[in-house]
């Protein structure tokens, strides 16, 4: 939040209301920090964006695979061997992105934001609803202050990896700040852009935090220390299979557009 508020005032410089426009994050860095920081921040920005797009690719492939596995489990039972390789779905995702990238100014289509918000709200609500249903039916799972206990099957190295993976998920959820200036450049100047963007950013972060915290806390309450990394793709829930499919379809649609924006 603090980082985003600072960036909104960097869209115009030296004055955040009447100054010269900085159309990109890199323009804002160069205007406010100089040439050396411009190069260093450029490396950092493109490095982070590369990591984010890789994350989008793998997450979308996992959700696509989860749809296929969900239908397999429904047809053959929960103990069936429904292993699916993600590589095929990564290739499918790449082909779709190549096609979408041919659409002129696809990333500037205003309905994208509306669709993304609807998709995010839908799959988050499904996860929250399923968690509440599981808690109501089976009670709260076994939880401990430090999470899953170390054992022969769960080493300290694995615990450290899952901890850092969780921190990465948090960063992944708020990755928009790296293109905040580019988003702000799409606003009309009839009202000061920085004031509009501050309100939009605060609203977006608040809404995202509420939904993601509910998913995290209710998911942990439902499964305890055995909670999967993603209960929509890790098959904490098997049924109703069609609802799991809908949630994963929403994730796929959301990330298809988000990849183009990035």
What is the helix tally?
A: 9
Strand order of the largest sheet: 1-2
Q: pLDDT below 50 for ≥5 consecutive residues: which ranges?
A: none
The secondary-structure class comes to mainly alpha
Average per-residue pLDDT, rounded, comes to: 81
Number of domains: 1
Oligomer: single chain
What is the terminal-to-terminal distance?
A: 19 Å
For the sheet with most strands, the description reads: 2 strands, antiparallel
Structural overview:
This protein has 262 residues and is mostly helical. The protein has one domain (2-261). The chain has helices at 2-8, 25-33, 35-76, 87-100, 111-138, 156-173, 180-184, 193-223, 241-261; strands at residues 12-13, 20-21. Strands 1-2 form a two-stranded antiparallel sheet. A hairpin with a 6-residue loop joins strand 1 (12-13) and strand 2 (20-21). Its main location: membrane.
Keywords:
67% helix, 2% strand, mainly alpha, 262 residues, 9 helices, two-stranded antiparallel sheet, 2 strands
Give a quick rundown of the structure:
This protein has nine helices and two strands. A two-stranded antiparallel ribbon has the order 1-2. The two termini are 19 Å apart.
Topology:
Elements: H1 2-8, E1 12-13, E2 20-21, H2 25-33, H3 35-76, H4 87-100, H5 111-138, H6 156-173, H7 180-184, H8 193-223, H9 241-261
Antiparallel strand pairs: 1-2
């Amino acid at each position: 939040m603090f980082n985003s508020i600072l960036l909104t005032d960097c869209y115009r410089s030296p004055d955040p209301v009447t100054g010269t426009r900085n159309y990109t994050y890199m323009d804002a860095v160069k205007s406010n920090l100089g040439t050396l920081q411009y190069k260093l921040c450029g490396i950092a920005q493109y490095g982070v964006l590369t990591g984010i797009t890789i994350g989008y690719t793998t997450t979308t492939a996992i959700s696509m695979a989860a749809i296929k596995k969900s239908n397999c489990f429904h047809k053959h039972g929960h103990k069936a061997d429904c292993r699916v390789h993600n590589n095929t779905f990564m290739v499918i995702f790449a082909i779709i992105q190549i096609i979408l990238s041919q659409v002129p100014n696809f990333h500037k289509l205003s309905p994208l934001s509306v669709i993304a918000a609807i998709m995010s709200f839908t799959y988050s609500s499904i996860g929250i609803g399923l968690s509440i249903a599981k808690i109501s039916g089976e009670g709260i799972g076994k939880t401990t202050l430090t999470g899953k206990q170390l054992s022969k099957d769960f080493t300290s190295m694995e615990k450290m990896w899952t901890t850092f993976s969780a921190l990465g998920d948090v960063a992944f959820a708020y990755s928009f700040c790296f293109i905040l200036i580019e988003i702000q450049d799409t606003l009309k100047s009839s009202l000061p852009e920085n004031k509009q963007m501050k309100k939009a950013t605060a609203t977006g972060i608040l809404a995202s935090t509420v939904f993601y915290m509910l998913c995290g806390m209710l998911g942990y309450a439902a499964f305890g220390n055995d909670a999967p990394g993603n209960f929509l793709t890790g098959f904490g829930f098997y049924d109703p299979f069609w609802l799991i499919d809908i949630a994963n379809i929403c994730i796929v649609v959301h990330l298809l557009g988000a990849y183009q924006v990035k």
